[in-house]
Amino acid sequence: MIYHLLLHHKSNYLICTTTTSSTTTTSKSRISTQQIVIPNIPANARWQQSGVTISGGHGSGNATNQLNYPIGIFIDDDQTVIIADQNNHRIIQWKKDDTNGQVIAGGNRQGNQPSQLHSPTDVLIDKQTNSLIICDSGNKRVMLWSRSSGTSYGEILVDKITCFGLCMDDQRYLYISDTAKDEVRRYQMGDKTGTLIAGGTLLGTGSNPLQNPSYIFVDEQYAIYVSDDNHHVMKWNKNATKGSVIAGGNGSGNALTQLSHGEGLFVDKLGTLYVVDYG
User: Where do the NHL repeats lie (predicted)?
Assistant: First the structure.
């Protein structure tokens, strides 16, 4: 069985690494609405140490074969890679084996008009409406942008929020990290206020509160995993009033007990946490 791990890279390209296992009975498990993909990676999996560039790789720029600080990634069912291309103020997609991407939101210079984005940091697909949900960080808003052909603008879902990361569960609840308030909120579609579920007044254990929370992952039990600038990853179980540190939390460093700057993350079916440790 072969598995793929996709990493966003601060050198303006994306790389894909693979792992193999002798186990042949494992399969990828998807929650019913396919908002969350939780891979079933066996404990004896072995990862290749080199990857293949699948997007960008032609230096920093705004051409359709270039990226400029790719920071958020979403993979569609057909392996189309959708990227929040932050410094180009656009969302761009790469279909499998394409040499050029296609701009599908923004790309009209930095701005706050409905057709513009300002430093987007994350993106996902709402399957029910076939729309992008975009964390338009520089404009402090979350946008809903139809994937229908010819769509040139989006609409505001949530505004006045210093958003960074997004996630959606199988009940179509949207989770958004707010770096200014050091919290994560859960929203029903159409809700402008949300419910506090992590950080903020829900302090972490000990002396490890959330600090500039960034990426989010929600598992099948609706536990929330959050990476932040406090050199750790925290977990909040469903309806918990306190979170706990599950990775890092021992200061910044490169020891196996430390994180320098945890970013993208996910948890597999065995409960193994995978974290991109930047820096």
Answer: 58-97
